[in-house]
Amino acid sequence: MVGAMKTRHFSSNIVNQEKWSLKSIFYPKFESKLIENKYLLSYLTNIYPSSHRLLVFILIIHGFVNLIKLFLFKIKLDSISSIINLSLLSLSILLNIFSLILLNKLKKKYLSNIISLICLSPLIMLSCFNPFECHIYILIILIYTLSTFSFFLSLLISIIIILFTLKLKENLILLLIVNLIGIYLNRLLDITIRSSYNQLRKSKF
């Protein structure tokens, strides 16, 4: 009887330590710093690599689509602009391959942020050179969903990009809608992954 009570008390302590708070949907975290650190390490080593490969795949596909588009429609219209676009798209592919190599040594949060920035930097430059193209909308969604930036950092980067690329006031509504979609997806993914991790830890005990 005493042993059962001790086991129950031990189990309740484990459950309490593994709870994660939702004091704010913009900053959910585990109550225990130890478990929070373990979660971040698990995220960087197990979850993020697959997300990163998806990010790289999307960027490479986007690059090839735009290469085809430039060769078919724009190469004769504006040679300087086309050369810049081709150079940035080629740089994007090279940086993405380089980032995949770096991913094997991913252990720290700041390193993952650098890798995300490396992958997205050519698309950021493309958005600045061609604010009327679809680059910026894809970029904002990727920042919120497939990068390792924190929510507030993602929001800050998106605002800075909008300030640099917004040329027509008519685009502001569309940019705000895309940001709202990105924010929703960002919070949904974060809460879902944390909930799944919490349930996985509980099942081990």
Radius of gyration: 21 Å
Which range does the strand content fall in? under 5%
Mean pLDDT: 76
Low-confidence spans: 1-18
Coarse shape: globular
SSE string, helices as H and strands as E: HEEHHHHHH
Spatial order of the strands in the main sheet?
A: 1-2
Overall tally of structural domains? 1
**Alpha plus pi helix count:** 7
User: How far is it from the N-terminal to the C-terminal residue, by CA?
Assistant: 20 Å
List keywords for this structure.
mainly alpha, globular, two-stranded antiparallel sheet
Describe the structure.
- The protein is mainly alpha-helical and 205 residues long.
- It has one domain (56-204).
- The protein contains 7 helices and 2 strands; from the N terminus they run αββαααααα.
- It has helices at residues 2-18, 33-74, 79-102, 109-129, 135-145, 151-165, 170-204, and strands spanning 20-21, 29-30.
- The protein has a two-stranded antiparallel ribbon.
- A hairpin with a 7-residue loop joins strand 1 (20-21) and strand 2.
- Helix 5 (135-145) runs parallel beside helix 7 (170-204).
Overview in brief:
By secondary structure, the protein is mostly helical.
Topology:
Elements: H1 2-18, E1 20-21, E2 29-30, H2 33-74, H3 79-102, H4 109-129, H5 135-145, H6 151-165, H7 170-204
Antiparallel strand pairs: 1-2
